């Protein structure tokens, strides 16, 4: 389906009823994206995952129009009564109140300054952000409070907010993580149909680095027998663009993502399907998903160790072992009348 990662809309795992179109029904080649107002009364979410590097996150959007077929976040849409398939990338919930809710949270005396990830689930710079600017407004709040933030994105749109990042960097309160899955534009368009091209992402790394913004490149996800061989080239290109550091995440396929990835392989790489899924099972102890902390990001077994060694050798060769600046809460403040009086 042109411009979409998923090719179907399977019923969510919590649904008792499913809609099955008649075989004679005409297939919609370009389902339109619909936006809904998210009425959540809190902006900051917390997790207890020891392997993600942060406890707090802000997700301005639920669902993601980038349409990455492998996205581990797709099953979160099922909690809303939607599908992890096409619904995830065509029915986007927008948290219009997120900036003000974030300001209220940081103003509270109960708030303990800490890193906030933008975002922990869906991309904060997906296409709608170009017009809505909710992520930018959240960053303006974080800048006001000098609260540290870590960006994770696949979009070159992140460079739009470089002016804010420069100001945040003065207090060591910003780090940007750009995910690059492949340098092959053809493969990237199939995997991530509405995300930025590989060249645009590398250009974003270069622009941010030139302005003194610490940038880490993530090879995420590493898909066995599909893009694993690109690890050295991606890291070399990232280093040339000015990235300081690199990381990687091995593919995992939770809940409904298993079937979506299987459909995608059948459509785009039928001859590699068995090998890709077989390798995933190999690093996931015979399953397609490993939800356990400590192993879910990197996998286990001989092949997972080969990927780790390839990545480490490639990272050393590319010189991507520099330390990222430690994000600081030292300068956190609660803006108010007292702060304004202190300027005189």
At a glance:
The protein has helices at residues 86-90, 98-107, 129-132, 134-145, 162-169, 185-191, 198-210, 231-241, 257-268, 273-283, 302-318, 337-341, and strands at 34-37, 44-46, 56-58, 61-62, 91-94, 116-118, 149-153, 174-179, 215-222, 245-250.
Mind explaining what this structure looks like?
The protein is of the alpha/beta class. It is 33% helix and 13% strand. It has 12 helices and 10 strands. It has helices at 86-90, 98-107, 129-132, 134-145, 162-169, 185-191, 198-210, 231-241, 257-268, 273-283, 302-318, 337-341; strands spanning 34-37, 44-46, 56-58, 61-62, 91-94, 116-118, 149-153, 174-179, 215-222, 245-250. Helix 5 links the parallel strand 7 (149-153) and strand 8. Helix 2 (98-107) packs parallel to helix 4, helix 7 packs parallel to helix 8 (231-241) and helix 8 (231-241) runs parallel beside helix 11. The protein starts with 33 loop residues before the first strand and ends with a helix. The model is unreliable at 340-344 (pLDDT under 50).
């Amino acid at each position: 389906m042109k411009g979409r990662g998923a090719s179907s809309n399977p019923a969510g795992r919590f649904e008792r009823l499913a809609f099955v179109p008649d075989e004679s029904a005409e297939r919609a080649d370009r389902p339109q994206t619909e936006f809904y107002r998210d009425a959540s009364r809190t902006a900051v979410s917390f997790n207890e995952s020891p392997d993600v590097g942060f406890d707090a996150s802000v997700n301005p959007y639920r669902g993601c129009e980038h349409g990455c077929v492998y996205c581990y976040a797709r099953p979160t849409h099922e909690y809303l009564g939607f599908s992890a398939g096409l619904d995830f990338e065509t029915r986007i919930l927008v948290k219009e109140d997120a900036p003000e809710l974030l300001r209220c949270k940081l103003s509270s005396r109960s708030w303990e300054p800490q890193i906030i990830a933008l975002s922990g689930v869906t991309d904060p710079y997906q296409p709608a952000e170009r017009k809505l600017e909710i992520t930018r407004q959240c960053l303006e709040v974080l800048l006001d409070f000098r609260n540290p933030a870590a960006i994770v994105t696949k979009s070159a749109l992140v460079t739009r907010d470089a002016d804010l990042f420069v100001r945040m960097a003065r207090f060591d309160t910003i780090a940007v993580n750009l995910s690059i899955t492949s340098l092959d534009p053809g493969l990237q368009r199939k995997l991530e149909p509405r995300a930025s091209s590989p060249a645009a992402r590398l250009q974003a790394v270069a622009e941010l680095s030139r302005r003194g913004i610490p940038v880490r490149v993530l090879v995420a996800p590493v898909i066995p027998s599909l893009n694993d061989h690109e690890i050295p080239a991606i890291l070399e290109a990232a280093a040339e663009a000015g990235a300081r550091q690199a990381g990687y995440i091995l593919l995992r396929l939770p809940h409904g993502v298993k079937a979506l990835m299987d459909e995608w392989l059948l459509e785009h790489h039928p001859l590699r399907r068995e090998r890709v899924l077989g390798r995933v099972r190999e690093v996931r102890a015979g399953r397609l998903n490993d939800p356990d902390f400590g192993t879910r990001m990197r996998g286990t077994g001989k092949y997972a160790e080969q990927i780790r060694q390839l990545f480490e050798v490639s990272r050393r060769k590319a010189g991507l072992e520099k330390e990222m600046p430690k994000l600081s809460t030292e300068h956190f403040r609660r803006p108010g009348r007292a702060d304004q009086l202190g300027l005189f």
